[in-house]
Amino acid sequence: MSKKASILVVDDEPHVQKLVKANLESSGYRVLLADDGEQAVKMVEEEIPDLVILDLMLPKMDGYAVCRRIREFSVVPVIMLTARSAQVDLVHGFEVGADDYLTKPFSVTELLMRVQAVLRRTKWPEEILSRQHFKVGPVEIDFAQHRVTVDGDAVKLTPTEYRLLSYLASNPNRVVSHRELLRAVWGPEYGEETEYLRVYMRYLRQKLEPEPSEPRYLLTQPGAGYMLYQPEEDQA
Which domains, from first to last, does the chain contain? Predict the structure, then answer.
């Protein structure tokens, strides 16, 4: 029998905690609960959950600050919950390290779909696991160890950043459409969330490109998609 995935639910509203916990447990997950931001950070350190569902408005420390603290020591995937749907909130959530976003009120079906999609992204497809090494300019990917380096120095990527980079590296010198990338990296439930791609491509460029504002390798094809350009000298 496979181990149950553990999910930390961080929300100060008891009825939300109760609803989310009941539905996650009925779907076979192990559920942990935290009422405030400080407790959430401590539980991520001690319990090492497989996923965090994190409310934005929390006592002591808001969801943005919690996510930022978690990212200092963990790449655990985070789904952020918010009662606001403004684009700036979504972008800011991604900037501090969230992997996905869900706006309150949400349906149980939508929540479970997002949870399944995010957990699925932490498992690597066989075609990626079977590859050994990829080089493009100063960037090297060791697929066997899930390790990325720039000029020999290790770069810390979140699971979503790594999966996006890996998919592009599996299709070098080909423009991959927005829809294909979203479905391959985020899951079949996605396809129209192009803002996700814009934000995450910016993160990858900041971490990997010599000049992020003038990318040489992680290229945009306006209106179509993105491409990882691999020069001929790196293809050997």
Answer: 6-121 (3.40.50.2300), 126-234 (1.10.10.10)
